[in-house]
């Protein structure tokens, strides 16, 4: 074949670059959206989980003087005096509450001590503080004389710390700097309960969704389209409305209990709401379409003649389904299971409304620390561990099942 001239080759390269540039410009809005809606929030969360400069910015001089302190006895009077000066300054610029919250997380009970001390030193004379600040601070509360208080201040003053990740797995640093178990074991139990509930919800959606998807794939197009309307119907209804409907059904005077009492099956209402049962039931109903749709998409492409051929060769219907149909439908089943499991692990609204205390999941505790306790660093650590847990489970799924065969439609 004749080769292109240098001018033709240059024109071809320019055309190729132009097409690539045009294709890239079409993708730019999607890349920007992913950057600001996905990459940036996750990066910020990971950074906030190990970075908290609040105390370091509020009392930098005191922390600098505490660097050489051995930690066993009361710090030098100069350090205590500097703390008294910082307390007056924070009381004046109204940052003592923020300082109190941070120290209280490291040493419970210090919030009231710091706030009362700040009020007591607010109107103190600067010259008097410089001369007798140590005595004035120690006179405000006995806890200022305890080395544990100053260890907590020095520990909270570290801008970069792993303590939030330790708290997220119910661990902490002791006075000697060793990692020990916390007195209250909360978060590991919540992670375990979240995974357990997510697995139960995934299993229930599989048990309910597989027969429905199978029937829809074998039915006539008119019947399948009619049933598809009911599968998609939840997407046309507000999530809040669907969850509230379950509250009306399951509450003590709701439809379910009233019907059971009317039928004589029970004598008094059963506790069906604000527990794990209500959370699992409501989330199974909400997430069922995410199982049915991938299954139906795969089953619709399976030729029914395979089953007929297996039965004609002597296999019974159950054996034919187990050896022929089930393996062919596994891509849709795996996709639906993975989708339902990942969504349910991080679900928030439904457990918050119908779960009560027993039905809470780890996402509800993350929201609590963000909205109520304002402990964003711990919330970021809990969220980061949840992200890592999901990625590990996804890796295990890919290793033992394989994500190459997943089909969502």
TrEMBL record:
UniProt similarity note: Belongs to the binding-protein-dependent transport system permease family. CysTW subfamily.
Main location per the UniProt record: membrane
Membrane topology: Multi-pass membrane protein
Keyword Coiled coil: no
One Pfam family per UniProt: BPD_transp_1
The protein, known as: ABC transporter permease
InterPro entries in the cross-refs: MetI-like (IPR000515), MetI-like_sf (IPR035906)
Transmembrane segments: 23-47, 197-216, 222-241, 246-265, 277-299, 320-349, 378-397
Keywords of this entry: Cell membrane, Membrane, Transmembrane, Transmembrane helix, Transport
Compartments where located: Cell membrane
Residue ranges constituting the ABC transmembrane type-1 domain according to the UniProt record: 191-397
Superkingdom of origin: Bacteria
